[in-house]
Amino acid sequence: MRALVVDHGAEGHLSLAEVPDPVPAPDEALVRVSAVSLNFGEVHGAAEAWIPDGTVIGWDAAGVVVKAAQDGSGPAEGTRVVTIGEQGWAELRAVPAARLGVVSEDADLGAVSTLPVAGLSALHVLRRMGSVLGRRVMVTGASGGVGRFAVQLAARAGAEVVAVSRDPAQAAVLRGLGAAEVHAHPASVERPVYGVVDNVGGPQLVDAFARLEPHGTLISVGRSAEQDTVLPPEALWGIDGLHDRTIRTFFLFGEPAADFSADLTWLAAELTAGRLDPGISRRTPWTRHDEAVRALLDRRLRGKAVLDVG
C-alpha cells in the first residue's frame, strides 16, 4: 500500500512511499482510508531526527471497514468509520474497536477526519472543567483545530465563551461559532473567567492564568508558542497573589485503555448534522501534501487541513 512516511530528505520531511500492508490483531478492524487530517504536532514532529525514515505517522483518518475484527468487536465490513491511531496516513490502517466511531452514510469522510485529535481533545478538556453553564470560559488559540471545537462545544454547553486569537480576521468567524468576546491576547480580557482551555502556552498561559476567578481552572492542552511558561512569584504568593486557582495538564492518551468509540460516533453525528463546523482551511489530494504541510509549519493555516487519499 501507499502511505505518507517520514523522509528527512524531503521538504516537510514527508513523502509518499510503498510500505507493507498492516496485519490486524484479533481485536482490530482493517480500514481502507478515504481521507486524513493533519495536525501541527505531527507535521512538526516529523522533522525530529530520532524518527527513522520510512515511519508511517498520522493520528486522524476516516474510511470504510474492509475486514471486521476477528474477535467480533467493532463494526462490520462495509461500515463507514472515523478513527484515531498512530499510523493513519496510509491507504489501510488497523484499528481496535475502542478507537473508531461509526459514521453515517451521508457524512463527508473528509470533514469527519478532522475530529479525532482536535474534537476529542476539546470534548474531554471541557468535561474535566465540570459544568460550564452560565460561566465564562476562555479558549486561547481559538482559531486552531482544538480551539475551534472548544469554542463551539463550550458555547453549546451554555458557557459565555471568551475566544483569544492573534488573527484579527478570525473575529467574525469565532463569533459565528459561539464566542461572546474575541480578543487578540488574554491580557485584554477585563472580566475574570471560570476556566481556560489553553492551546498556546508560554506567556499567553501566564496571562490567561491571571484572568482566572477564585477556584478557577486552567487546562494546558498545547504549546504552539513553543516557549517556556514561567509564573512570576507575585502571581503565587503575597497578599495580591492568585490563590486558589489551578493549572492542570492534559494528554488525550493519558489513559491508555480509554474507549473513544462513543465520543467519536457522537462527534461525527454532530458534524454531519451541521451542529459542528470543522473549519477546513485547505483540502487537497494527498499527492499535494507538501503544500498543506508547509502552510501548517509556516502558521499560515487556520483550522484544519484535509488530504483525500487515492
TrEMBL record:
Molecular-function GO term, any one: acryloyl-CoA reductase (NADPH) activity
CDD domains assigned: MDR4 (cd08270)
Residue ranges annotated for the Enoyl reductase (ER) domain, each copy included: 9-307
Membrane-spanning residues: none
Matches recorded under InterPro entries: ADH-like_C, ADH-like_N, ER, GroES-like_sf, NAD(P)-bd_dom_sf, Zn-ADH-like_protein
One of the Pfam families matching this protein, by short name: ADH_N
Source domain of life: Bacteria
Protein name: NADPH:quinone reductase
Organism: Streptomyces indicus
Biological classification of the source: Bacteria, Bacillati, Actinomycetota, Actinomycetes, Kitasatosporales
